[in-house]
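User: For my dataset I need records formatted as: sequence, then structure tokens, nothing else. Please produce one.
Assistant:
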Amino acid sequence: MSAMNAQDPESFATRSKVRLLQRRTRPRTPLRQRVPAEKLRMGVYLIPSLFTAGNLICGFFSLISTFHGDYLHATYFIIIANILDGLDGYAARLTRSTSQFGVEFDSLADVVSFGVAPAVLVYFWALVPWGTWGWLAAGTFVVCGALRLSRFNVQSTGPSKGHFVGLPIPAAAEMIAAIVIMYYFLGGAGAPHKGITLLLAIYGLALLMVSSFPYFSLKNKDLRKRLPFWILVSGIVLITLFIAEPQIMFFTLFLSYTLSGPLLWCFTTYKHRRERRREMTPASS
């Protein structure tokens, strides 16, 4: 018994040492694939990063314009930021310079330009009289926008799809900019009812961003392929209408895109239910 008791501490010590060595040598599994430090020291892709930096700077200028009370110019900077954001992704895909660094940089820029900037714009322009409800609405928009970007980054590592899940945060920001521009165009920038309109709009956009509604995407579309002739004619008509009435067309375009997600979901759900009924009818007969 004494010999067995003498060997027990050694065996326990040996087991604990082995267990500790196994824990130290076990490779850590990250949630996402990280860029090695050596690869990052080699440099980053210049052209997409410059577009992303321009996007971030426009978001910052929008915030400065809002603080100075120049709300119309703040919306213009959000629109320019959206254009640069589109050029960023297109240039990365065209030059095959997509990288994990670019994805993270783009997400951080989008949070500022399409999350914080439009939320601050709406708050100072229309939601200040609402007090707590006003800043809660603006804060909810920023949080939902960040959640939308996080979900997009996680889903982008999977197979490519022809649609987005939830309203993209740039489209939500452009919808807010379109509402502000439309108010200025109609001469109702000082209308008393703009507060309730923007309060409902910003809560609705926040919910659409975190929803599962499908939205059409041009991300994986190859625009170099031949397209039907009617698409060219439609593009010419849209450009003509934009030149004639830019404010109305801008508002109509983004309102249609914002509502397209719920409408497409309703149409798809109705189609699936109709197909199920057709399948069940022969089986019952």
